[in-house]
Amino acid sequence: MKKWQIFKQGVLQELPLQLGVFPFGIIYGVMAIESGLTFLQALLMSSIIFGGASQIAFVQLLSNSTPYGVIVTTVAAINSRHLLYSISMVEYLNKLSLSWRVTLAYLLTDEAYAVSIRKFINHSDNSILHYHLLGSGMTLFLSWQISTLFGVWLGNDLPEFLDLQFIIPLTFIAIIIPMIKSKSTLITVVSSGISVLIFKNLDINFWIILSGLTGILAGMASSRWDKKS
Amino acid sequence: MIWSLIILCGVITFLIRFIPLSGIFSSDLPLSVKHTFRYIPLAVLTPIIVNDLSIIENNNFFLIENFKLYAALISIIVSIIWNNVLATISIGMASFLILSNI
Asked: What DSSP string describes A21-76?
């Protein structure tokens, strides 16, 4: 496959997720204006931070006059899961030039990662796979910027389309189910899924990364069972 | 001040994503370590799914009339049977819309 074909594949595989991402971007835009941010601040935050859930948390906390230190810590906590994404991409991206790594790190968000890691794992011998992540990441980036712009323009006239956001977890289900190929991967899913219920119930801020680490540790601990089976 | 706050959050977010790719990790990692990395997508995407299903609302379990949960279970079955992204999403979404409008 040629570079542009892989890039196009990344774009096309990312597109269905935009049905869920777009409303999310609009909601952020509306909330950002309501929180007191200017048009430019609301709009450029989507390029500067480029992390949906953390941006919504940012503007929510800002509306409640939360101390700035708490806002920074919350954004870092919410985005801490991207550290794990990046770690899992090392073996595929580490030999690229610095400019490529900087660009792809910037684009490494939930939806782009979910779509591209599947491609990376299944075609790990391909040396131009990074074009797939570039395609998925740029699609998400453009969608996020445009939807933010819509939200900022709409202001309080927010249409009802919240249900569409359910497409995002459904897409993640479609991506992870085929990855469950052994006992240890199943244990990873079950343990991270159960631990998120516990950590969220305890109101722990870092629930995503703690649940993720629990899942990874459970997977590692149970990997010996894979060899026996 | 708001601008500084936005930029600081942006820099922190970028560093979180970039540090592992900055070269501090060798690409010739031992096989056992690479094997561990395979658990990451499952371990991080699963909590996001579970969170989006709103199983916990205001520190209480929300199960009986949780149509997202039922639709997600249907989409899991579809994914196991057909292993098709589009079928999983469309049947899951259709199930959710039907259940919530009955």
From this structure: HHHHHHHHHHHHHHTT--HHHHHHHHHHT--HHHHHHHHHHHHTT--HHHHHHHHH
Q: Which of A62, A130, A63 is nearest to A91 (CA)?
A: A130
Q: How far apart are CA B75 and CA B95, in angstroms?
A: 9
Closest CB from A16, A45, A177 relative to B76? A177
Do A106 and A184 sit in the same domain of this protein? Answer: no
ipTM of the shown complex? 0.86
CB proximity list for A150: less than 8 A, separation 6 or greater: A22, A25, A26, A29
> What is the DSSP-derived secondary structure letter of residue A160?
S
- For residue A139, what are the domain limits? 3-179
The predicted-structure confidence for A129-187, as pLDDT tens digits, reads as follows 999 999 999 999 999 999 999 999 887 666 665 567 788 789 889 888 988 989 999 99
Give the gap in angstroms from C-alpha B13 to the nearest C-alpha of chain A. Answer: 6
For residue B26, give both structure tokens: 């060798």
d(CA A151, CA A171) in angstroms, rounded, equals 24
For chain B, what is the domain count? 1
Q: A154: distance to nearest CA of chain B, Å?
A: 22
Neighboring chain A residues of B72 at a CB cutoff of 8 Å: 169-170, 173
| Per-residue pLDDT tens digits for A178-224 | 889 899 999 999 999 999 889 888 877 678 788 989 999 999 999 98
Q: A74 with A155, same domain? A: yes
Residue B60 dihedral angles phi and psi, to the nearest 5°: -120, 150
Residue B21 lies in a domain: no
User: A141: which chain B residues are within 8 Å (Cβ-Cβ)?
Assistant: none
Find which of A28, A68, A79, A90 to mutate to test the B interface (most B CBs within 10 Å of its CB): A90
- Establish if B61 belongs to a structural domain: yes
| Domain-located, residue B76 | yes
